[in-house]
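Worked example 3. Consider a protein that binds adenosine-5'-triphosphate.
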Amino acid sequence: MTYKTLGPRPEIDVRGLHKSFGDNEVLRGIDLEIKQGEVVCVIGPSGSGKSTLLRCVNLLEEPSKGQVFVGGAELTDPDVDIDAVRRRIGMVFQQFNLFPHLTVTENLTLPQRRVLGRDKAAAAKVAAENLERVGLSEKASAYPASLSGGQQQRVAIARALAMGPAVMLFDEPTSALDPELVGDVLAVMRMLANEGMTMMVVTHEMTFAREVADRVVFMDGGVIVEDGTPDQVIGNPRHERTRHFLSRLLDPAMAEVEEETSDQVGKRD
Ligand SMILES: Nc1ncnc2c1ncn2[C@@H]1O[C@H](COP(=O)(O)OP(=O)(O)OP(=O)(O)O)[C@@H](O)[C@H]1O
Ligand SMILES: [Mg+2]
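Given these inputs, the predicted complex is written out as structure tokens:
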């Protein structure tokens, strides 16, 4: 648990958000405020809409209904300067999406030059600073294929940080990694949280959520079922759906048995 002063205004403000793909209503009325400096972990079963929510927050998906504000600017306003708002937001995905034919430094300088118009020397300086932050200065000239998955993900984080975002969104940043590589990535995220970065993190790393998150949000079926401190939501969940999800996470073998039993009965819960 972190103890820090949160900014007075919400950095991310989601109001009455709905998102449908055809007939499939994936988000069914999401209200979520994240204050400056706050770290919010989003948990929930597969298909509950976690990624779609993150993608709506930086307008990779267009909401069907509702409003999204980032840094006070309404993304859902048709007149908004969407590129300016997007520059406030860094996003890190499960897949690192580094360019394989570029060195680590080039992966970090390219978006700075293209999107922010920085010159080569300025971009290289910011790249070096951020590689140092994630502990990978010595890999500056390496190609992504020569790095471990955990190192590649730290490069992806440094690439996002080099753009100077006010908010970082993470979508299961460690779930594609071998277990022994997860810790280094979480350590970088923990450092960012301690520095006061506003973060929205979809993750199933419960230890991280407990120790680093200010709040944990549990989603199921396109709605927020619970929203509270880690102690409340993970330690003492109020809803059966949250308890069920957490017990499956903590004991997957048991969950399989449960699943088979409920298949026989023909229904869940
Ligand atoms: N581009 C798309 N087109 C159509 N359906 C989509 C699209 N993106 C997501 N969906 C559907 O929306 C639902 C929610 O998906 P989403 O990826 O947000 O879930 P999630 O909670 O992130 O799941 P996971 O834990 O598996 O990543 C799913 O039923 C999915 O099939
Ligand atoms: Mg997802």
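Take a moment to read the result before moving on. The domain at 12-88+166-252 is CATH 3.40.50.300 (Rossmann fold). DSSP finds ten helices and ten strands in the chain.
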